[in-house]
Amino acid sequence: MNKAQRVKAVMNREETDYIPAGFWFHYKPDFTVEEMIGEHLKLYRETDMDVIKIMQDYAYPVTGEIHCADDWFHIGIKGTDSKELKKMTEVIRGIREQAGDDVLLFQTMFGPFKAASIAFGDDVLMKYSKEAPEAVRAGIQKLADGLEAWAEAYLDAGADGIYYSAQYGEEGRFTKEEWEQLVRPFDLQILQAADRKKDKYNILHICGEPEYAFKTHVDWFYDYPADLVNWSVKDNGYSLKKGRENFSCAILGGLNNKGNILKGPKEEIRKEVQAVLEDFGTKGIMIGADCTIQGEGIRLDYIREAVEAAHTYRKGDE
């Protein structure tokens, strides 16, 4: 099996020759296209991981300003002819050219609520979501239409799928009824860009924000279209095995993104990987972290240790 075949087998919950793994972290938002390509390939090559997740570290070009509720009807996002979109598709094409076709590329995307939050501030977004939800919904619809077109462009540029960070389901942010009106339809709109295409895939990352202690309603996302699903086990107290019972797709995760994978030592990283696989089993899982690796001093040799521990795992290992 090559790396692409291995990850596809996991997504189909079939047996693999060994357990695949993938980890990632953020890059500087002022990196050039060449620097972004180089950093992604360095991570991939030096760790031997099985997938390339292309980070979205450039801000989405959201247009408009919010000073009153009516302003939400007039926001937007630049189109697929923009320099911002072109920059990202150049990154995809550059990575594909150098990495070849034996590995799957997933382009990270944030939803329209997160795009609005970055552009206008979370306090502003939440204020109007409560006071003028119909106005906010109209604005979010415009952003979702634009991001759906961006997702199509990413796939056309050579991405094998979308790694979608689904936020705004945190405990205490919205009621489920509010979330179903304001957030869910637009997540699904973007996820369907890959879901309706042959040989394109979705990785769903259920993400929380620090203001809400990273806790989110994992159960709200059970029926989202995904081939792999990922969430923070440590922050939600929601195990991988429970996820396997409730999601209809394979699982990505297992490791604390702020723990051994960041701080070491290597023997503890290996033990953590082995413990995850001893508990979960070897079918329908790709080893990863709760979220992006966060903190100072990220080390590629630590990431490689986790990847090797997954690759060399055999049931009963100590």
From TrEMBL:
<dbReference type="InterPro" id="IPR052024">
    <property type="entry name" value="Methanogen_methyltrans"/>
</dbReference>
<dbReference type="Pfam" id="PF01208">
    <property type="entry name" value="URO-D"/>
</dbReference>
<protein>
    <recommendedName>
        <fullName>Uroporphyrinogen decarboxylase (URO-D) domain-containing protein</fullName>
    </recommendedName>
</protein>
<feature type="domain" description="Uroporphyrinogen decarboxylase (URO-D)">
    <location>
        <begin position="78"/>
        <end position="313"/>
    </location>
</feature>
<dbReference type="InterPro" id="IPR038071">
    <property type="entry name" value="UROD/MetE-like_sf"/>
</dbReference>
<dbReference type="InterPro" id="IPR000257">
    <property type="entry name" value="Uroporphyrinogen_deCOase"/>
</dbReference>
